[in-house]
Amino acid sequence: MASINQQNESMFSFDNQDMMVFILVMSLHGLQMMFAELLPSFSLGGLELELGPFLFISYTLVFLFRSFWACLAVPVGGIIFGEILIGDFSAFGAVESLLMITISLYIATTMINDPEDVKWLAVLAVVAKGLEELSAQFIDVGKFYVGVESLEAIEWLPETIWAVEIAGATTQVIIAGIIFGALPMTYFYPRMRGKIEPLLGMEPVEGHPSGKRINNDTLKGLLAWVVLTPIAFVFEAFSETSGAFLVFEPEFVEIYGEVFLAVPIVAAAIVAYAVVYYRQQDTA
């Protein structure tokens, strides 16, 4: 029991190393998001499909460091580099990703009993994306039923909103969660384990001390997911009805074109490099 409590403390503690991990994951997630924005999208049967995001980068880093702060850094990176720096930010709208991406990734990390079992980690990457999309589906359908969002399906058949949402969520899990997430992660994760941690002065993280894939932390995480989903819905509904309240929308990309995406890309790259450089100088 003591070892489990110690492991929980390490997952939620926030020291200098945790700060380095947070900044590194935040910046690299933002970097991959901005590169994905440069890729073309296409339509298939009425669904808008995109090449990316390259979530294998985020999954690899989160599973390598396996802390709450690494999970939180993923949505924070998306908000800072993918919304604020390009001038398209809504405080209420950001809450959904902040809550649901974080808790979805956290649940997946609690299920890591063997950090060298790459196949199981790939399953957990899909689980994390699936939980994120499931909550997003409930929130989007809820917004329609409470009247804060118009129906994108057939107007005379409201039930088709479920079909549209399920199709969209399934597509996201397949493309972002599997093709650009779990599959490439199985290549990069074992090659980075034991190599990237020393750059931040850390040892590779071990599996959950209980040795179980489904443990008390997993159940607590699932309970938190259930509680946080309606909370995220409330904030998302407010974002649809609050107008210009707590928003930052100069829309730099609309004004200057896609060339402005270089700003968050360069900023994220500089931050990521600065973290590693600072740590190396600090330990030299």
TrEMBL record:
Domain DUF8171: 20-281
Record keyword Transmembrane present: yes
Top-level taxon of origin: Archaea
Ranges that cross the membrane: 21-42, 54-82, 89-108, 166-189, 222-239, 259-278
Keyword Kinase set for record: no
Name under which the protein is recorded: DUF8171 domain-containing protein
Naturally occurring in which organism (per UniProt): Natronomonas aquatica
Keywords assigned: Membrane, Transmembrane, Transmembrane helix
